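Troubleshooting entry. The earlier prediction with CO-5-methoxybenzimidazolylcobamide gave an output that would not parse, so I re-checked the input for stray whitespace and re-submitted. Clean input:
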Amino acid sequence: MKELFEKMASALIAGHQEEVLTLTREALDNKAAARDILDNGLLAGMDVVGQRFKAGDLFIPEVLLCARCMLAAMDILDPLLSEGDATATGTVVIGTVEGDLHDIGKNLVAMMLQGGGFKVVDLGTNIKSADFVSAVEQHQPDILGMSALLTTTMPKMQETIEALKEAGLRDQVKVMIGGAPVTQDYADRIGADAYGANAASATEKAKELPS
Ligand code: B1M
């Protein structure tokens, strides 16, 4: 299986979507667990993409191809990752903050929360604080989840928390934040209720939050 995961990571890094999908199906046929495929194949590949992007060896069009491979494979894994206890644990409204188009991590968190029994309302990316507030009014969730991948968009999380206060909704909803540049310290500083380092810990923390 190790070899198959290595091939999958290489195909993702090369942006070869059909190959990534074939290898994902092959791994499932060989009884690999969806979480192992995700962690050892797809995310292992995305890690390398991130490093090469940072080093200037990969450019945006190439990274987009890799991201499309990842998202397409996640479509196959989604029903398996979100399989879980059917009893609804609560409702989560989730989105990526304004100015930020990164959605792979947010989608993963949404899938795992569904697997953890939460009803998830996914607002998508580039969500303005006013739209988060409207969604909280409309859906009355237990948790509002915000994702940010850019240091420049992280302040939108604080802006949204302030907007919730102004709308008189802050006490009705717990706020969870996450994304690569986000830390527990940042969550504490802006008054979020929880920080998720990854999709699995986000789901655990969501379950622990008192409603
Ligand atoms: Co962008 N990008 N990108 N990018 N991109 C980063 C984030 C960057 C770190 C790359 C780098 O330079 N090393 C850098 C940000 C630097 C910074 O701010 N400090 C960066 C940049 C600069 C940019 C642009 C500005 C580039 C440009 O235009 N010059 C641009 C911005 C566009 C915009 O958003 N306005 C841009 C564009 C893009 C693409 C469109 C090409 C593509 C996104 C495609 C998509 O998402 N559909 C892209 C990608 C793919 C990346 C990297 C390579 C990978 C991100 C990813 O998907 N990781 C990324 C490098 C990196 O992060 N190492 C990079 C895999 C994903 C599973 O992990 O998202 O961290 P992650 O999610 C994790 C946890 O963080 C956590 O759980 C997830 C699952 O375990 N988590 C939560 C996430 N959200 C959570 C919410 C929670 C709890 C946990 O509670 C609610």
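This one parsed fine. Residues 43, 46, 49-50, 53-54, 60, 63-64, 67, 94, 99-106, 108-109, 145-147, 149-151, 176-181, 196, 198-199, 202 surround CO-5-methoxybenzimidazolylcobamide (CB under 6 Å).
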